[in-house]
Specification:
The protein is α/β, with parallel strands linked by helices. The chain is 34% helix and 27% strand. Bound molecules: adenosine-5'-triphosphate (ATP) and magnesium ion.
């Protein structure tokens, strides 16, 4: 495939079949697109159309059944699991709809955790986590556990955690799906600020405000890309 060097993501004819035999289900039916460094892309489409399936693939949380996925210039198709994990840690930050914070850890400790897995030393972990929490507007709240934070604040911790290993790409699956409209606006402002600083953002969303803020929309229907609005 001849993807431009500025492409951070290039997908070619990606498919994903769940299950086997007569009960199999083709969730992605051959999806091809490329994303340039620094783009802000929204993936939209009806429930069950394959958005999370695609995002999990982009985040190296899942493998395609067939097709090619080139991330940061590296063809991931034939990679062993350990290599994929290393590439994921280096390149990808993932934000979840349900936040997925560890409830017994403080906000600061939650942000530190992926850095610990990546082998960052303890002093640098705390320093970076403090900076990131300040960046997402949670300066004095690093000691709070998730239960002591609002939904919007929890998602800010989720974003700080996703940024902790300085990824090139931030992926988010319905990041405002569990939030009220005012918290959603704050989270969107945070994403927009990250985009302005050059981050590549790919967000799955049902939220028209996020869709409107994105530069580009990938619209999925029944496992296929239907249209691209610039
Ligand atoms: N592990 C699985 N095993 C079998 N089928 C699955 C699995 N995960 C997803 N599917 C099916 O694949 C299709 C796409 O699912 P996916 O989660 O990607 O949809 P989605 O677009 O994210 O939907 P939503 O907007 O509701 O989150 C659905 O029909 C779903 O039932
Ligand atoms: Mg989904």
């Amino acid at each position: 495939m001849t993807a431009a060097p500025s492409c951070v993501i290039a997908c070619e004819a990606l498919t994903r079949v769940y299950g086997e035999g007569q009960r199999d289900y083709q969730a992605l039916k051959g999806v091809t697109f490329a994303i340039e460094r620094g783009e802000f892309v929204a993936i939209m489409g009806p429930s069950g159309c394959g958005k999370s399936t695609l995002l999990n693939m982009l985040g190296l949380l899942d493998r395609p059944t067939s097709g090619r996925y080139v991330l940061d210039g590296v063809d991931t198709s034939e990679m062993a699991d350990a290599e994929r994990t290393a590439l994921r840690r280096r390149s990808i930050g993932f934000v979840f709809q349900a936040f997925n914070l560890l409830p017994r850890l403080s906000a600061l400790e939650n942000v530190c955790l992926p850095m610990a897995y990546a082998g960052v030393g303890a002093a640098e972990r705390s320093e970076r986590a403090e900076e990131l929490l300040a960046q997402v507007g949670l300066g004095g709240k690093g000691g709070h556990t998730p239960l002591e934070l609002s939904g919007g604040e929890r998602q800010r911790v989720g974003i700080a955690r996703a940024l902790s290993n300085r990824p090139t790409i931030l992926l988010a699956d319905e990041p405002t799906g569990n939030l009220d409209s005012s918290s959603s606006r704050e989270i969107l402002a945070l994403f927009s600020a990250l985009h302005a600083k050059g981050m590549t953002l790919i967000l799955v969303t049902h939220d028209p405000a996020i869709g409107g803020a994105a530069q580009r929309m990938l619209r999925l229907k029944d496992g296929q890309l239907v249209a691209e609005d610039a």
